[in-house]
Amino acid sequence: MSTANPFDLTGKFALVTGASRGLGRTFALALARAGADVAITSRTLASLDGTRREVEALGRRCFPVVLDVRTSESITAAVTTVHGHFGRIDILVNNAGCNIRKPALDVTWEDWNTILDTNLRGPFFVAQAVARHMVGRNYGRIVNIGSVTSVAGYAGLAPYGASRGGIRQLTMSLADDWGPHGITVNCLAPGWFKTSQNAVMYDNAEWVSYLTDKIPLRRPGRPDDLEGTCVFLSSDASAYITGQTILVDGGITVNSTRALPAKK
Length: 264
What we know:
Elements: E1 13-16, H1 22-33, E2 37-42, H2 49-57, E3 62-66, H3 72-86, E4 91-94, H4 109-137, E5 140-145, H5 158-178, E6 183-190, H6 205-214, H7 227-234, E7 245-248
Parallel strand pairs: 1-2, 1-4, 2-3, 4-5, 5-6, 6-7
């Protein structure tokens, strides 16, 4: 039996998209704490300064790169630059995404395209660009970031849910495509976490109470709840896991219904 720590990412090189804030920042720092050097992307370099400083404070190398996942030229340029800088990419955390929250009757053609181009088309072509380099080495870990909406429907989130459901299906297809090349592809699907995209909802105490009652663990998620799963799926500890969607949701998708108290 090997005595090496399979969760140790020392010597690995990771690329995390959409890492300037929110969950992307969380993933970049989690990988750095586990030992990886990390390339981080956003649409502007200046927005990456905070994450870069935090990664470097952990003693890891950090390489900020401009990437707009909505354009093929930007994807090609960014992946080529990161690969040239580190010499290889061992781990991709495909995190960049957006949302426009509207009732379905109010969603415009432009809204739909913005969300699907960012959340589904972009991640596919980022994964494709990175996998081209991974295939030759017969090794790679790709972690697509999905959502509880990958498996459940919510009003006001039609295009977002379609994009996240698509990520789940994409994950399974790519796992089958690239498994023979030693590449695992999995989907990390967070439940209800407070981010800049949905922060306004958490200002409503009544809604938070309603949400919490639906979560068996009785609280919304915290960013650090995602760190272990991200490291696991990025590491050799998950070498025989691929094509899976792992929900980190406090149990909300068990769809529990509160029983009435027993009558005395």
